[in-house]
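Risk mitigation, structural track. In case the binding assays with zinc ion fail to produce interpretable data, a predicted complex structure has been prepared as a fallback.
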Amino acid sequence: MTPGQTGGTEYDARIRRSERLSAQHEFAHEFLDFYKHVASFQKTLRANINSFGAETPSGPLGAVVRDPLDLTVLLPHFRGFLSLIEQKAPGALAKSARQMSLLSSDSWIASLEAYWKLAGVYDQQVGAFGQFLPRAFLQPYAEFRAEHVARAPLVVTARTCPLCGARPLLGVLRLEGDGGKRFLMCSFCLQEWEFRRILCPTCGEEAEGKLPVYIAEQLPHLRVEACETCKFYIRSVDLTKDGHAVPLVDDLAAIPLTLWAHEHGYSRLQPNLLGT
Ligand SMILES: [Zn+2]
Ligand SMILES: [Zn+2]
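Fallback model:
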């Protein structure tokens, strides 16, 4: 499958999964319905990027994920994106999309470029939705770039994305041999890399007794993998328990886990698109 083809089918899978989870879990309904609109926009944007970008990342070493944005491809879609968010998002976010739409295109570019350079690397805990606008808009472009990068085999267990340097968003457990193997999914370019199962991706703690796991009754394939040493946690999607899960989307439904982690004093290493 070529990268051009991957984009569309992955977005379709995300959209279908958000519909399914939304029907099953009342508590996640609002978030997932909103996400579905975002993913539909991203799918269209990704198709545009594919058609424009076919020859972009072909230097001798392949593209580097965070090379400068191609604004001629992206910018014509930003106003439409802002108006979609204004119509479909929860109140505070709709308002920030409205405010952004009133700014000059120079301000848009500054906001997109700042996110592109620093996201997942230097951004500290910002509030819910803090990065939503540039993040949701640029996600298809980050995925596109990352899919075109030549990958070297990993020789060490990396705590940040080997392609773009961002912190992980999620753990993903996939069936391999007799058990599950853990991968981390990048919060910026959404690619995965392999990671040891008993190891804190924030501080490097490896004592099993200091790494408790919490699973909510309603969503048995989703886990909080916490660390007593640094008090951070990473959320994991266990595909050995539910092979239909789409990690990026199932994570958005995991509201009971967010509440549990908060009550127990754990912070999430990197929040998801909706800031939870
Ligand atoms: Zn990455
Ligand atoms: Zn830790």
